[in-house]
């Protein structure tokens, strides 16, 4: 996804937002079960299900047709996800297009890739490079043109929250001025078009996460981490303990971790809760209902999933509001056996051993 073109002179200053931004509404309550409290504390009173890149990430080499159903990060994917009882969709802003970075493309060049809005136009072929180095043609059952962040705000179901992931290259050391420029451009679009839509930011880039929080206090900022499942030059990315430390030092509201990192180190969830941090997860295991249920028992606040239909159905069966209703934030498990504290402790000790092999 690309930004609407914004000239640097039009970007708001660090402590400014457009006059039409409804800060009084944004800063006190988010719709659909998410609230921002005093002092920036972020409270999630229900278990969230978030659609990964909309209706689900495309895995082009997968034999599972569901992973190639709808073009990810597209308006079609976002609105398809909105037909299910999810709270947010997650999508990427910035990224790469084959050998050129999106930041090196003009808006017109970016929109020339893939299918075009005008039937008479032929778009450039869109390819994807897999982690093992293969180059694949981006073939999906339901294709859709690339879109801008502004178009997402204008064309996606307004009751659906946006988890905006800020994408940066893992192998580039960014200068603060560049990060500030990119983030300010994104914030301008968000403040101009968010209205009363629930918004949260997330990023793997530690400095970007700190800057988003510094440049605005309206929307919560979550730090994305692999939870120690991969090692990077920047040590802040290499463990859940480092993620918690970064959040506390920078005033961030929460963590989004690869679920394997959580199962290998379940004690980090307790640490984050003691620090008043919200905790979300992502990863392939989040497409397994039983893994999602265990996370609910652990105190995880929500999951980012690819199989939106299957997981929302499973969550509705396994986790139901208490008789007092959702307003008090209490949930009860249903349709699955309850675990005692001793059984859950044993399960949490067993899972790290299982996923190590």
From TrEMBL:
InterPro entries: GDPD (IPR051578), GP_PDE_dom (IPR030395). One of its GO terms (molecular function) is glycerophosphodiester phosphodiesterase activity. It comes from the Eukaryota. Keywords: Glycerol metabolism, Hydrolase. Its EC number is 3.1.4.46. PANTHER family: GLYCEROPHOSPHOCHOLINE PHOSPHODIESTERASE GPCPD1 (PTHR22958:SF1), GLYCEROPHOSPHORYL DIESTER PHOSPHODIESTERASE (PTHR22958). Belongs to the glycerophosphoryl diester phosphodiesterase family. This is glycerophosphodiester phosphodiesterase.
